[in-house]
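Pasting as-is:
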Amino acid sequence: MKIAVLRERKAGEARVAATPDTVKKFVALGCQVAIESGAGKASAISDEQYAAAGATIDTDPCKDAGLLLAVNAPEKDVMMQLPEGMILAGMLNPHAGADQLAAFNLKKLTSFSLELLPRISRAQSMDVLSSQSNLAGYRAVIEAVSAFGKVVPMMMTAAGTVAPAKALILGAGVAGLQAIATARRLGAVVLAFDVRTAAKEQVESLGAKFVEVPSEEKGDAAGGYAREMSDDYKKKQSQLIHDTLKKMDLVISTALIPGRPAPVLITEDMVKDMKPGSVIVDLAAASGGNCPLTKPDKIIEKHGVTLIGYTNLPARAGVDASQLYARNLLSFVTTLLLAKDGKANVQWDDELIKGTLLTRDGATVHPQFKGA
């Protein structure tokens, strides 16, 4: 198997799909690895480091390649140059629309979208959403603090005491929990909200206060996900968030629903009632935002509040994001796509393959996207 890795073309993308460490492991299996020159530059990886690990540096790494490892789905101009029938693995954003799926099928790509990976225990080493969300949660706090005009921890000086900043984390998933931990490490007083009652213990274990809607309704669904709540619950939730936001300095909002617009948690009226100088980082900006005022990939100020809408926070920690992502891909490929001698050996009956397989032999095969 010849494995290709291209330089990512998406604006603002600093990650790469392979590192010298993962290249060594592929080469040890007997694979050839071809890297496009400059592919790792934004992640502080030089062509020389890849070459030392056993890779070939090439201007056309996809020539005769059987597998392309990617962070994002290839851009249209790149797609047209891919060999017909090759395997593609990455975060392919399958909700992007029918045109992208049509492009995959035109080239008869066997494509695996790792965002669709079933959340089961043996898939943890391949879980790209968890590894990248961890960094997104961390980076969100760093961005918020950078835009905040005051210090975060409590400081006692001869001139007086500076009160600690108060932070609210909306959503206690992977990104939210990392945001809680990071804000706590920086000295903030942290509150967190989640509709799932199971999140309460995790939030409190990190030293944050769990903000709870006074209701008997539970938001826990199968697989650790949240379920849709009733209108009565949503009304109480909205009032609770509104009241809490008035006292906050930093807000990190993480609520996302795959393939659907992000739920609105912070209305314009709520923003108007926030303290001047406070900051909101909206991790759902790419899906419409948890606050409708958020502008994707922009920092704006409304009603005295700074709103940050970066859509690719993991890329703002590109060095570590690449290391983690490349290990996720290595685990997926070596476990499910390759035999021990480095030849292609896709485990077609495995539930992880069935869960991530998007297109094959010129057709969209994933049940969720067949109609696209």
